[in-house]
Amino acid sequence: MMPQTEMTELHWLFDMLQHIDVGLVVVNTKYEVELWNGFMENHSGVSSSNARNCSLFDIFPTINQSWLQHKLDNAFALRTPIYISWEQRASLFPFKSYRSVTSISDTMFQNVVIRPINNANGSVDHLCLVVYDLTDVAVNKAALSAANRKLDQMSKTDGLTELNNRASLDRAIKLTFDSFAVGNSGPHCLVMADIDHFKNVNDTYGHPVGDIVLQEMAKILSSASRRGDFVGRYGGEEFSVLLLNTTKEGAKVYCEKIRQQVEQRVFNSNKGDIKITVSLGCSELGKQHSSIEQWIESADGALYHAKHNGRNQTVIAD
Predict the structure, then answer these.
(1) How far is Cα 303 from Cα 260, in angstroms, rounded to an integer?
(2) CA 142/CA 238 separation, integer angstroms
(3) Between the N and C ends of the chain, which has fewer C-beta atoms within 10 Å?
(4) Three-point CA angle 214, 220, 221, nearest 5°
(5) Which residues 6+ apart lie within 8 Å of 276 measured at CB?
(6) What band does 13 get if pLDDT is binned at 50, 70 and 90?
(7) Of these residues, 34, 162, 216, 237, which one is catalytic?
(8) pLDDT score recorded for residue 228
(9) In what order do the strands lie in the sheet with 230-235?
(10) Domain 157-316 in CATH: superfamily?
(11) GGDEF domain: from which residue to which, for each copy (predicted)?
């Protein structure tokens, strides 16, 4: 008979295997279950007595049998552990997640280790599948990735208008200028647009209403632009649009479309309706522009002339 001490230790071992927060499944060479602990019972809804002597693939018919069978056969043949990461395959067993902090995920993410069990003579005719619940790790990583994407987007976007910010505009202008300088692209036009008498809007209606006007102006610019155009807030009430593969004639058509839409638009606010106008200056990139600064100054100069000549108009730089 087995000594009492050994009986107690064996009892403790089985009790630990049943209540450990890790799934344990032992299968034979026919992929039949011979051990099925409490973790597997709780998450699968299949009791140990019902799982025992059943094929793993009969218990979980949705598992990719050929894929997993290949993994199991390799573990038998090589007698070395095989790891299945949640980053390669989200889960092996179709379990639901019950962790409160992972409410955004209904599925349990799992790491699975397939370990050969050596007999006393060194042979292997059983494998132990160890199932780890990695849902918290997976969800936290997904949340971190989402936060990083959001931060990246925020670093490129103007918070008020959701257009590209000044830094993004500068990068786009530089890329366009450098490409044109080596003869790889063109023609391109840079448009500078400025809301006329915007200070009066803020002084008369307040800055919150002024912000609404800026947001609506951004929507007009975006809706009138093509997929490849680059629209951004240059600063204050000034906007910039990079019209790629567009001549100055085409740019003027675009600018006049914007100008007329703004002129005809009535901006509603809780302090009354507002009507505004916009002035636009445009410069087509050419060999006469020896630097980015010259190109921007050319568009700014055209905008200055539009303002100086009475506002609510488009001026194309010579």
Answers:
(1) 16
(2) 37
(3) N
(4) 90
(5) 195, 196, 197, 198, 201, 213, 262, 265, 267
(6) low
(7) 237
(8) 84
(9) 230-235, 238-243, 189-195, 278-284, 314-316
(10) Reverse transcriptase/Diguanylate cyclase domain (3.30.70.270)
(11) 186-318
Percent of the chain whose predicted confidence (pLDDT) is above 90? 68
For the chain, which residues make up each domain, given as ranges? 4-142, 157-316
Contact indicator for 101, 91 with CB cutoff of 8 Å: no
Computed over every residue of the chain, the mean pLDDT equals 88
**Would you mind telling me the total number of residues written for the chain in this entry?**
318
Which residue, chain included where needed, has tokens 């450098």?
178
Please, which pLDDT band fits residue 64 given cuts at 50, 70 and 90?
very high
The structure tokens listed for 211 are: 């912000």
Dist. CA 300–CA 286, nearest whole Å: 16
pLDDT per residue as tens digits for the range 198-249: 999 999 999 999 999 999 999 999 998 888 899 999 999 999 999 999 999 9
155: left (phi over 0), alpha (psi -120 to 50) or beta: alpha
Say yes or no to pLDDT of 3 above 60.
Answer: no
Neighbouring-strand partners of residue 24: 130
Determine the distance from the C-alpha atom of residue 216 to the mean position of all C-alpha atoms in its chain, rounded to a whole number: 26
d(CA 182, CA 130): 59
Q: pTM of the prediction? A: 0.58
Q: Which residues of 88-103 are buried (b: 16+ CB within 10 A; e: fewer)?
A: eeebbbebebeeeebe
Residue tagged 């007329």 (tokens): 260
Q: How far is CA 141 from CA 84, 86, 89, 110, in A?
A: 18, 12, 15, 14
Q: What is the mean pLDDT of residues 169-176?
A: 92
9 is catalytic: no
